[in-house]
């Protein structure tokens, strides 16, 4: 009766199963299922509507079928079959539509992604640290750029230019109380007080970023990994993902959060204080205010140096679980910047007779300096990445090890385009006819003008890739007919299968798209910087015609870029909401997002939260405690992104526990995406070491899958990991088993293939202590195994 009551349950219950005593009896085999990006329900994963929660919470949990809740106490009932468990983590990355606003943090996420893209290195610790330092400095420049753009919109365009112009203030009534003409000299009408009030907008943005970073860390990344001693010796191919402190970056995130928050506040303080200090330095100005202005700006410069020094300090501590915090630094640095910001507001708000706003605020040197600094950082990062790649070459690494610098360039471009486009769009909206405002700084205007030609380059490249894909699809038709000899006969179906195979290869051409886009962005960005520096120069008589043509083209591109950024912002948020609310859209739009948020925040604290800092410890704790309590073995079965989580969790296990784990991956991007773009952590040597250390590993893939692919381990005398590509579709025509046409599955429904059940059964057979299964010695790992048992574990 008690056992029957235990088996009754629903998906919301938490019913832990008692472990079986380790008395030498045959244990229970466990199959731990981990889903992929699209997410699913426990009922779908376990193929049973009645499920119970074994452990976990409403965010991520392990489920079993109700009848398997107490399986460990009844091992005799599970002699010929395993106990299936499902780890459901989709709530870590999905949510309501407001999460689409996280897409506004995309530049921060991209630069954080570049931190993990460094090439593999051997005995080059200083060079590796220099690589991480350059990426962190690039991330800091993005924070300063974003806050500076908010200052440009709020302080310059609204409080300084629009409120200081009668026509603009009358056109936008909500600005009227700031205007010295419309408000008849109201309290807020002096320029300094207008700037002080407008500073609330970038200050609120900085505070919001600080709060989101703190809140998401507490909700997602505060889960402590399993505490253990680091491996005595890091063998060949060892990856940092196996170190005890890799998934716990509490100290670094807190330190970077303090530094970036202080940088944002100091940026606002300089933007507010500089115009007042310039006015005080005029002949006949107040000596006291002049001295105070110099003092405040000097303090801001000292604060900037302190921020840079904090960012330059050593990065992550991965060899141990670092629970300590630099509390003095974390608290005092933002508070000091906040105090300086408040003093600057009081200084700027002091009444200065005769001060009137005219022209634009001096933002051109600031934005020009940021753009130049980012360009130099990208070039230096490329040199460091080239040195690392040359020391340990990897033929499969994306862009010959330059993937990180290229991605940093894209992050800086995103930040620049968003800043320039938003500033230009707000200026056009407030100016109307374009007759009474000076507009944003010249560099931001030129950056907005870069958007149309860059879009043309990307469209031409996409057209070339589409043409190549179509040609490849035509060539694939013969391969389809050869693979399905005796069955093929429907030209339309053959074309669809061939097109699916050809389209799946686009993933392998992503490095080309990134390389061309990054190179074009770097060149166009340099052109925008040169154009901004030479805008005010008057050309000679012979060059006036050329100058007029270039100037007209630039103005047209600027107007078009302004509208494109507005349209892009709307599409950005719309697609983001759809990705979080529509499962089908999430499978396409959310792939890059889930790859980016898989990695801990090591370069930018305001990046979206890392779900793996919760999911990987969850899986590690579950596997380690189950094997320790029962003495049994388990199969961890991961699809798509779930296979990456499964591999990361396996690396986190003690070596003894790792040898009790068999790994089954399908539709896995472990080598195709992660191995190529993150060679230091998922390179061939790292994956080969995982193959050696787990009990067994089998990988399934299809030629029609655009995400998953073979593991392609380097030459290894042991058994192969990859099975030959699965047949897709399962049947070409109609058969007794498939009377209706079988679909082209691509990345989904690997469980529908008979090969999945076959490989799963082989792995589970190895887990039965009463029926030991010997390892087979088959083809080397570099050659795909055949569909029979040869080459399998």
Layout: helices, strands, pairs:
Layout: H1 2-7, E1 30-34, H2 42-46, E2 51-56, E3 61-65, E4 83-88, H3 106-115, H4 125-162, H5 166-171, H6 191-198, H7 200-221, H8 250-280, H9 287-312, H10 327-348, H11 364-391, H12 403-431, H13 442-483, H14 491-504, H15 510-534, H16 544-581, H17 583-596, H18 612-630, E5 634-639, H19 641-652, H20 655-658, E6 661-666, H21 670-677, H22 679-682, H23 684-693, E7 696-700, H24 754-767
Parallel strand pairs: 1-4, 1-5, 5-6, 6-7
Antiparallel strand pairs: 2-3, 3-4
Structure described in brief:
Keywords: Membrane, Transmembrane, Transmembrane helix. By secondary structure, the protein is mainly alpha-helical. Helix content is 55%, strand content 5%.
The CATH C-level class name of the domain at 2-93 and 611-767: Alpha Beta
- Report the portion of residues in β strands: under 5%
Could you say which structural class the secondary elements and strand pairing correspond to? mainly alpha
* CATH arch. level architecture of the domain at 2-93 and 611-767: 3-Layer(aba) Sandwich
| Low-pLDDT runs | 1-13, 15-26, 770-791
Under CATH, the topology of the domain at 2-93 and 611-767 can be stated as Rossmann fold
Average pLDDT works out at 83
Radius of gyration (CA) equals: 30 Å
Tally the beta strands. Answer: 7
Order of strands in the sheet with most strands: 2-3-4-1-5-6-7
| Count of helix runs | 24
Report the biggest beta sheet as strand number plus sense, adding barrel if it closes.
Answer: 7 strands, mixed
Span of the ends, CA to CA = 42 Å
Give the overall silhouette: globular
Helicity, as a percent range: 40-55%
Protein name: Integral membrane protein
Keywords: Membrane, Transmembrane, Transmembrane helix
Organism: Streptomyces parvulus
InterPro entries: AB_hydrolase_fold
